[in-house]
Amino acid sequence: MMIEVTSHYVGLLVYDYEEQHDCFLTKRNEIIIPKGMEIPLAVTMEIYPHKNFKKDKALLKIGITESNGPETNPRFAKKLWSELIHLDSDYPIDKPLQLICTLDKNHILGVKIINLLTNKEIFCLNESVRKIEKFFV
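The structure corresponding to this sequence follows.
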């Protein structure tokens, strides 16, 4: 029996928010799916939004990367996808959102974000962002 595994590391881009300039700065690439993991798989984690108090906006910026090694420097990881998500302005920045990242049997990457206060999905990317290369053991 052949087991399919990931042939690359998949990372989450972590951003800092600079309110004065209303911009996001890439901080690091955090590995969320190591190379060699059996697929299909799902990874769940908590992430926190940012707040622009002057403009009364709650924001979340995330990105997904791929790399050959466990790369934490964002400059050396290939960005597959990124998105700036505008949340309800009254969303508390000290309350996490849930990020669910999936890789299905066809190597299609999916991303969902759940509001943990309401348990409602606020973002879903369920189309083919990019097929992750197949690797069989």
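Residues 10 and 33 are 5 Å apart (CA to CA).
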